[in-house]
Amino acid sequence: MESEFLGWLRPRLAPHPQLRLGPGDDAALLRLVREHECAVTIDLLSDGVDFELGTVSPRRIGHKALAVNLSDLAAMAAEPLAAVVALLLPREGAGELDRELYLGMIPLAEKFGLCIAGGDVNCWDGKLAISVTAFGQITARGALFRSGAKSGDKIVVTGEFGGSILGRHLDVEPRVREALHLQANATLHAGIDCSDGLSRDLWQLCEASGCGAIVDLDKIPIAAAAHELNRQRNDGMTPLDHALADGEDFELIMAVPMEEAERLERTQPLLESACGGTRLTVIGEFIAERRFWSRDEAGVMQPLIPRGFEHVGWSKPPYKVFGE
Ligand SMILES: [Mg+2]
Questions:
Q1: 259 C-beta neighbours (distance < 10 Å), count
Q2: CA distances (Å), 280 to each of 75, 124, 185, 269, 270, in order?
Q3: Residues near ion ligand 1 (Cβ under 5 Å)
Q4: Distance from residue 245's CA to the centre of ligand 1 (Å)
Q5: What's the 300 CA to ligand 1 centre distance in angstroms?
Q6: pLDDT per residue as tens digits for the range 40-61
Q7: Which of 91, 179, 230, 304 lies deepest, with the highest CB count within 10 Å?
């Protein structure tokens, strides 16, 4: 990092008990707790793919770039520890943009006790790209994997789904407190965060666990934004379709033993603001058969096709479509 930017940045970063040395040397130094595993995750966001720089404030982009990493740490039930940030800036206006991006990240980092340990900034003739790598500490209860769902477990989700494009996809609220509270106080078998679409991410969890699922369509918590999107776009997608496929909800999807799931839904432990203030909903169950079903209010089942965001460069969908 250039010294002028460092001089601006350093006083804005709060001290952190595990950060021995922050930005300014050749590398940062973190004090790690012995025996605890460290979760590492990275995301790369770019102008034109994940946001439109001309239409969104850089602070919101900075917020999102860090928040999506925090969401991945939450999905592993990791306590946020540190992040390093790589910025590739368009040459014009670079001096303003780097500061604004950091001003979007810093409040979120403070909220979740994560230190920004360092980073790099470069300019070029292309569009903005921002990549954040985040580190998290696994607690004594261990990490939460995608691979632990068992037949008979309930599908439990935080929050609401659909229509994130109307704003939530930028103003991401990572479910860190929710995940840590549940991992410490409940029995969870598996978890994933919803980035690519509820049906698609649920199916990824099934694939990793070697099981299938039945989704109760009338139980899915549909966000008001999904209804709004349905009104705005006359494209044949219902609010439920949006909830199942839109993605970037950044909610948690978990496999929870049946009785535990019923208890969580009844007691709603996450409604306490210290635990995130989020509602938990049971939206179906995992089954041994590796198939994916929807079930309506009358109990009628139909094959459910996982839909959601397709990553550029994937030659084929990462799921198997049954019944075709
Ligand atoms: Mg994820």
A1: 10
A2: 15, 45, 14, 8, 7
A3: 72, 193
A4: 15
A5: 31
A6: 999 999 999 999 999 999 999 9
A7: 179
